[in-house]
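Anyone opening a protein record will find just a pair of labelled lines. With that in mind, the following record should read easily:
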Amino acid sequence: MLDYDKEADGYDATRGGAPRAAAAAAAVLALVPDTARSLLDVACGTGIVTSGIAAGRPGLRVTGADAAHGMARRAAERLPGAVVRADGRRLPFPDGSFDAVCAVWLLHLLDDAGPVVAEAARVLRPGAVFVTTVDKAVAHHVGSDIDALTASWSAEHAEDANERVTAYAAGHGLVPSGTALFCGHGQGRTPRRVAQYIRDGRLYAAGGPGLAERVETLPGPDVPRREPDFTLRAFRKE
C-alpha cells in the first residue's frame, strides 16, 4: 500500500486533479438528500473532493477525516477547522452524529471493509445515507489491449465489490438507496504504469515479472487508455 504521508503533496496531480475531484463531488451530492445538514467524508485524503462537496452545497456542514497526517494536513488547508485525523474503523464521533457519510476510494484498499461500514452506520442518524465507491478494479476494465492481456489474471478479491459492500451494509441496517457514476478523469491506465503496478504487487501479482514485461511492450506504453467510469452506491439507514 502507498505511504500516504509521503504521497500527500503530489497525490492530486497523479489522480486526475480538479476535474476528477469535481466529478466525484457532484456524484456524491447527487446521492445525498437535500435535507441533509451534515456530512462526514471518511478517508478524505487531500480534501480536494471534500472541499468540492462543501462548495457544491453551501448549507451542508462538511467534516473530513483521514488517518494519514500528511493527507489530513493538506485537507485542513482546504477546509480549515473541519478536518480531524481519524481512522475510519474508529471514528471519534458519537452515535447518530451525521446526516451523510461518504467514503470515496477507500474500501478497495482494505483487507476487511466491514468495520468501516459498521462505523459509518453507527455515526449516521436514522434516515441518513452512506455513500461509497464500489467495484473500483472492475471500472478500470475498459476493453483495452491491457485488459485483453491481463484478463486471465483479473479475478482478484475485492473488498469494495458491490455485492460484498451491500452485504456489509445490510448487516448494519443500511439498505440500497441509489447509484451514481462519474468519470475518472486522468485515470486512464498506461501499459507502463500497469507494468509497474504488477512489479510492485499492487495488480495481478500472480502474473509476476513475465506479465509485467508483456504489458510494458504493448504499443504506446505511455498512452493512456480510455478513462474509467466509477460507481457510487448509496445506502440509507433505517
Summary: The CA atoms of residues 133 and 232 lie 4 Å apart. The longest strand covers residues 124-134. The mean pLDDT is 92.
